[in-house]
Amino acid sequence: MDLTTIDRGCVVTSVAGRDEGREFVVLDLTKDGQYAVIADGKLRKVEKPKTKKLKHLRFYAASAGEDISGKIQNGTLPGNAEVRKALKMFSTEESING
60 Cβ partners below 8 Å, 6+ apart? Predict the structure, then answer.
């Protein structure tokens, strides 16, 4: 997957708005392809995700993890704790590789 392609289960960072710099997991995309439905499991819970324009997000080639991506691809939502844990592991990986 290249950086211009986004799919459900990807990790993104907000580059605009009051949540700038925060990492999120993409739960879904809108039908028109203009927006991503995102959650971080803390401020934006899975039960009430945020819809954000794609141009306001930075995409990473990494997924949030096999378990979370698998659940999202199968149509079930992961728990907030699972999302937080995956984002924490992603942040740790980024800082090590970084």
Answer: 3, 10, 11, 12, 13, 90
Type of residue at 96:
I
Amino acid 94: pLDDT = 64
Cα–Cα dist 98/93, whole Å? 8
N residues, the chain: 98
SS (H, E, C) 5-53: CCCCCEEEEECCCCCCCCEEEEEEECCCCCEEEEECCCCCCCCCCEEEE
* Residue 91 near residue 81, CB atoms below 8 Å: no
CA distances to 58, 63, 94 from 89, rounded to whole Å, are 18, 11, 9
Note the pTM of the prediction, 2 decimals.
0.85
CA distances from 5 to 15, 33, 82, 92 (A): 17, 11, 24, 23
For residue 8, what are its two tokens? 């459900």
